[in-house]
C-alpha cells in the first residue's frame, strides 16, 4: 500500500512496542510515510531508538517534553532541516499525576489539574502551532482521546476533563487551520493495555467491561487503531476535520 508515499510525519508518544503511537506509526510507515519520532527524557530514548531504528539507521529521533516550548521549537527546527516540510503529526501523549487517577475527582488538586491539561490538551495546540508553518502542502494532525471526555468513567477523573479539552482543541484548531488544508481529528480509542493505561486504577476491570458490553463483544486491537490512524491521515479522509472518531468496538453507542 502506498497511501502515504512522499509524506513526512512526526510521531509524539511512543514509549514502547505496546504504545498506540507505535501501532499508528507502523501503519503510516508501511503506507510509505517517512517518519521522525520524539521521546520524553533519557529513560525512553533507548526504547524509541530501537523501535524507530527498524525504519532505518538514519531515522530522526529527538527529545521532547511537550510541556517545554524550547524543546518543541528544537524539534520542529530539526524537522525543517531534515524534511523541509511536514504532512502528518501524531499526538499520542497524556499524563496526570497518579493520585489524581484514584479516589474522588472532587479531590483533584489545582496542580494535578494543571499538569493533566498542560501535557494532555494544551500540548496539541503548541505542537499544531509549530507544525503548521511546515505543512505547506496541507496536512493531517491526529490526537488520541477517550470516552471519559463525554461520560463519567470512574477513576478516569481529571484525565476525562483533559480529554474533553483535547477534543474541543481539536475542533478549534480544525477551524483555524482549515483554510490551509490542514485537518485535525481525534481517535477516541477503547481501552488498550499500555503503560499509560495501567496507571488508571481498575483498568483490567475496564477491559472486561468493554468485552461484555460492546456490540462487537471484544476490545479494540492496536493494529485496528493503526488502520484508522492511516485512514485519517490519508486522502480517503480529505474532507474530514474537527471530528472525534470512536474506535471502540461500538461501546460508545450503548445506553446500558
Ligand atoms: P503510552 O504508551 O504510555 O503512551 C503515552 C505517551 O505519552 C508516552 O510515550 C509518554 O512518555 C508520553 N508523555 C507523557 N508525558 C509527556 C510529556 N510531558 N512530554 C512528552 N511525552 C509525554 O500509552 P498509550 O495508551 O499508547 O497512550 C497514548 C494516547 O492514547 C494517550 O493520549 C492516551 O490518553 C490515549 N488513549 C489511550 C487509551 C488506552 O486504553 N491505552 C485509550 C484511549 C486513549 P512517558 O512514558 O515518558 O511518560
Mean pLDDT: 96
SS strand fraction: 5-15%
pLDDT under 50 segments (min length 5)? none
Query: What value does the Rg take, in angstroms?
Result: 17 Å
Q: Briefly note the structural class of the backbone.
A: alpha/beta
**What order do the strands of the largest sheet run in, or round the barrel if closed?**
3-2-1-4-5-6-7
Bound molecules: NADP nicotinamide-adenine-dinucleotide phosphate
CATH class: Alpha Beta
Number of helices: 7
Largest beta-sheet characterization: 7 strands, parallel
How many domain units? 1
Under CATH, the homologous superfamily reads: NAD(P)-binding Rossmann-like Domain
CATH architecture: 3-Layer(aba) Sandwich
Helix percent band: 40-55%
**How many beta strands in the DSSP annotation?**
7
Q: Give the CA-CA distance, first to last residue.
A: 40 Å
Q: If you had to describe this structure to a student in words, what would you say it looks like?
A:
This protein is of the alpha/beta class and 256 residues long. It has a single domain (8-247), classed as Rossmann fold (3-Layer(aba) Sandwich), CATH 3.40.50. Helix content is 40%, strand content 14%. It has a seven-stranded parallel β-sheet, with helices on both faces. Helix 1 links the parallel strand 1 and strand 2 (34-39). Helix 1 packs across helix 7 (222-233). The structure holds NADP nicotinamide-adenine-dinucleotide phosphate. NADP nicotinamide-adenine-dinucleotide phosphate is lined by residues 13-15, 19-21, 40-41, 44, 64-67, 92-95, 119, 144-146, 189, 191-192, 194-197. The site of NADP nicotinamide-adenine-dinucleotide phosphate has 28 residues, from helix 1 and strand 5.
Amino acid at each position: 500500500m502506498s497511501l502515504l508515499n512522499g509524506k513526512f510525519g512526526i510521531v509524539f508518544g511512543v514509549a514502547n512496542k505496546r504504545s498506540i503511537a507505535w501501532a499508528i506509526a507502523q501503519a503510516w510507515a508501511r503506507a510509505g510515510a517517512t517518519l521522525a519520532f520524539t521521546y520524553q527524557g533519557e529513560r525512553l530514548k533507548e526504547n524509541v531508538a530501537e523501535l524507530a531504528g527498524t525504519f532505518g539507521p538514519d531515522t530522526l529521533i529527538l527529545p521532547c517534553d511537550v510541556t517545554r516550548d524550547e524543546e518543541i521549537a528544537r524539534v520542529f527546527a530539526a524537522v525543517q532541516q531534515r524534511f523541509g516540510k511536514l504532512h502528518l503529526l501524531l499526538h499520542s501523549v497524556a499524563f496526570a499525576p497518579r493520585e489524581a487517577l484514584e479516589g474522588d475527582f472532587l479531590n483533584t488538586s489545582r496542580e494535578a489539574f494543571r499538569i493533566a491539561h498542560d501535557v494532555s490538551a494544551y500540548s496539541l495546540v503548541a505542537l499544531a502551532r509549530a507544525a503548521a508553518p511546515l505543512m505547506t502542502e496541507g496536512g493531517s494532525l491526529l490526537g488520541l482521546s477517550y470516552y471519559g471526555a463525554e461520560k463519567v468513567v470512574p477513576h478516569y477523573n481529571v484525565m476525562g476533563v483533559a480529554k474533553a479539552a483535547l477534543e474541543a482543541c481539536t475542533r478549534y484548531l480544525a477551524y483555524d487551520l482549515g483554510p490551509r488544508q490542514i485537518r485535525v481529528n481525534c481517535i477516541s480509542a477503547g481501552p488498550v493495555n499500555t503503560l499509560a493505561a495501567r496507571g488508571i486504577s481498575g483498568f483490567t476491570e475496564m477491559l472486561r467491561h468493554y468485552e461484555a458490553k460492546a456490540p462487537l463483544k471484544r476490545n479494540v486491537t492496536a493494529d485496528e487503531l493503526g488502520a484508522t490512524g492511516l485512514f485519517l491521515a490519508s486522502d480517503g479522509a480529505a474532507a474530514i476535520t474537527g471530528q472525534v472518531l470512536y474506535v471502540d468496538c461500538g461501546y460508545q453507542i450503548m445506553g446500558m
